[in-house]
Amino acid sequence: METIKPGKYVELTYKLYEVAEPQEILMYSFTEEQPDNFVFGLDNGMLESFKKAISGLKTGETFDITLSPEEAFGPIMEDYIMEFEKAMFEVDGNFDDERIKEGETIEMMTADGHRVPAEVVEVGEKVKLDFNHPFAGQSIHFVGEVKTIRDATPEELQPKGCCSCGHDHDHECGDGECGGCSGCN
Predict the structure, then answer these.
(1) How far apart are CA 103 and CA 134, in angstroms?
(2) Contact 26, 169 (CB under 8 A)
(3) What is the pLDDT, as a whole number, of residue 1?
(4) What is this structure's pTM?
(5) Confidence class of residue 159 from pLDDT cuts 50, 70 and 90?
(6) Taking the alpha carbons of 93, 96, 102, 107 in that order, is the dihedral positive or negative?
(7) In the chain, which segments carry CATH 2.40.10.330?
(8) Which of 35, 65, 103, 127 would you label with 150, given CA atoms 20 to 30 Å apart?
(9) What is the pLDDT of residue 171?
């Protein structure tokens, strides 16, 4: 029976929960119809702790993995919460209050041209944005099953996707949606 090891194509079904009190909150679900799939070892963005936990599992085996914030996406970094002048968010001379409002995730551009998601934390005299990963500071819990393990095809061995995880995501790169799979950060 095949085991998860480098070079193997893997499909997993699982539910990803944020560990919160008094109960866990379901954040993402990978189903039989749409499993998480990747080539193990080419998944540059996969959490090391998740990778270690699933390495060696066999087809049909289940997993139940809880990762602390340090094992997952790290603590909340105060340096990643920044304030910007409202003028940066003007369209035709007017503040874009349709898009820039508390709780919204927007896309910003770094000095070197990379798109990064940020959550709008506060809109006042300035706009406060949080660039931490949405799961930063949180424990996360994976519960699932290994569905498929096989040798990867030559095409599957070629990295693709916006976050180098090997997935064909149904979204634009940099839109903040890459946080959902184990292969993306």
Answers:
(1) 12
(2) no
(3) 84
(4) 0.72
(5) low
(6) negative
(7) 78-130
(8) 65
(9) 42
State the average pLDDT over residues 22-46: 91
What confidence category does residue 160 fall into, taking pLDDT thresholds of 50, 70 and 90?
A: low
Per CATH, is 78-130 categorized as 3.40.50.2300? no
Phi–psi pair at 163, nearest 5 degrees? -115, 15
Measured torsion, CA atoms of residues 70, 74, 76, 80, in degrees rounded to the nearest 10: 150
Query: What is 8-73+136-180's CATH topology?
Result: Chitinase A; domain 3 (3.10.50)
Q: In sequence order, what DSSP letters do the residues of 11-63 get, joined into one string?
A: EEEEEEEE--SSS-EEEEEE-SSS-EEEETT--TTS-HHHHHHHTT-BTT-EE
CA separation for the pair 157, 85 (Å, rounded): 45
Which of the four pLDDT bands, split at 50, 70 and 90, describes residue 19? very high
